[in-house]
Amino acid sequence: MTHTRNTAASPADPNRSDTPRATRSSPADERAERALSEPMTVRQLPDRRYVVDTDGGTYVVALDAGRCTCPDHAIRGARCKHLRRVALSVTAGVVPAPDERVGACAVCGTATFVPADEGRSYLCDAHAFDPGTVVSDRETGDRLVVTAVTTERADEYRTDDGRPLVDYASNAAYGAHEPAVEAVYVSSLRPDFAPRDARTYAFPASRLTAPET
């Protein structure tokens, strides 16, 4: 049996079809690489476009329209590195999407992305609740299950008797600007009906807290 593992390799024949050849990156690949590696600062404008500052200049990108003011796009019609960088920044959560703006969490004031055309009340990830989350009432210690997180402010939300949520004395210590969170008491739940069949109550968001794990 012949073993070739120690046989010296023969020089590659450049005319053979299976000989590896050096490949050049396409313009699109180069733009993608530069979008990732080059220093750029992306900022959103009030009209939902973006300013991109680079060492070579400052350009304006309309992401949803796929346009940029740089020569690469304006002259060649290419999906330039600036368009790509803005798209990457939006995907990474560095800047808002075109239909979003920077807002403030109604509980802690932390910057968060909210719908651009709505003046509602929103929560950051640290203070938001998912439906089904078990929470505690800071005032009574009772346990509840969140059924919905609204975007209505506590001074806008009306209870079944027509009163604004902030009018209740037990809510005086919580912000009128906070969104109302709807929940049902765990003690009211029975095996023979679903949570939606239990009576729903509303609370300013910061009155509820998720139990520590």
The backbone outline, from C-alpha atoms, is elongated
The stretches of 5 or more residues where confidence is low (pLDDT under 50) are 1-23
Sketch the major β-sheet.
5 strands, antiparallel
Structural class: alpha+beta
Order of adjacent strands in the largest pleated sheet: 10-9-8-7-11
Distance between the termini: 67 Å
Topology as a string of helices (H) and strands (E): HEEEEHHEEEEEEE
Helix proportion: 10-25%
* Number of separate helices: 3
Q: DSSP strand (E) fraction?
A: 25-35%
> How many beta strands in the DSSP annotation?
11
Overview of this structure, please?
The chain is 13% helix and 26% strand. With 213 residues, the protein is an alpha+beta fold. Among the domains are: 27-91, no CATH class; 134-209, no CATH class. Helix 1 crosses helix 3 (81-91). The longest helix is centred in the N-terminal third of the chain and has 11 residues, at 27-37. It is elongated and about 65 Å long. Residues 1-23 have low confidence and may be disordered.
TL;DR?
It comes from Halorubrum tropicale. 13% of the residues lie in helices and 26% in strands.
Question: Which keywords apply here?
Answer:
213 residues, four-stranded antiparallel sheet, elongated, zinc, zinc ion binding, Znf_SWIM, zinc-finger
Write the layout of secondary structure elements.
Layout: H1 27-37, E1 40-44, E2 50-54, E3 57-62, E4 67-68, H2 71-76, H3 81-91, E5 100-104, E6 111-115, E7 134-137, E8 143-153, E9 179-185, E10 201-204, E11 208-209
Antiparallel strand pairs: 1-2, 2-3, 3-4, 5-6, 7-8, 7-11, 8-9, 9-10
